[in-house]
Amino acid sequence: MRPSKRAPDEMRPVTLERGVVRYAEGSCMVTFGETKVLCAASLEERGPGWLRGTGKGWVTAEYAMLPRATHERTRREVNSGKPSGRTQEIQRLIGRSLRAVVDLHAIGERQIVVDCDVIQADGGTRTASITGAWVALHECFAWMMKRSIISVNPLRDHVAAISCGIHQGKPVIDLDYAEDSAAETDANFVMTGSGGIVEVQGTAEGKPFSEEELLGLLRLAKAGVANLVEKQKQAIA
């Protein structure tokens, strides 16, 4: 039995609430069970300097965990002078995931920055961030289209992410902290609404996992991402 009493293929309750930040061009509060992330998309009229003159825009992300998002207070990274390696890795993952489904030429020479701030962490903060960031980005593009800043929606597909792992010898989906900290294998899957794979991150914490186990986790992830995409569609309807 899982610590949460869920079935192996049962996800935590997921909510996606858009339009929660007054000043941001797009925003979404996403919850995966007890994990809560606030995503806000901001339009910047100037893109990165290295794209100047290309007619191409950029989508990037920043990720942070609030001091009391975890059981004990963590120091704000701004006070240490630079983000941790984990923070940099996660925000790059979020940016790559979003860019995989965006027509960057349709943005023009502008930049969209999606801030993902973890309010409460109980496992799966990066997967929740990606899923909620897509909704915030969709809202930002809708805001831009309404004001004739762009003529077409640059989004080509949905993108969402889910964690899967092997816990007590069994493949399970959407690990919370209790499972994540004790899992034999921990993996994150980023996939599009049409079923394309954007990124897979998988690590054996104990014994190596087999090809069959990896395929089993992939099957769980495909079903989980399909569920998340339906929730995204409901959120933006």
UniProtKB/TrEMBL annotation:
Source domain of life: Bacteria
Domain Exoribonuclease phosphorolytic: from-to ranges: 10-138, 159-223
Annotated binding of phosphate, by residue: R86, G124, T125, R126
GO annotation, biological process: rRNA 3'-end processing; rRNA catabolic process; tRNA processing
Coiled-coil parts of chain: none
Pfam families listed in its UniProt record: RNase_PH, RNase_PH_C
SUPFAM superfamilies associated with the record: Ribonuclease PH domain 2-like, Ribosomal protein S5 domain 2-like
Principal EC category: transferase
EC number: 2.7.7.56
Oligomer status and interactors: Homohexameric ring arranged as a trimer of dimers.
Family per similarity comment: Belongs to the RNase PH family.
Name of this chain's protein: Ribonuclease PH
Organism: Salinarimonas ramus
Originating gene: rph
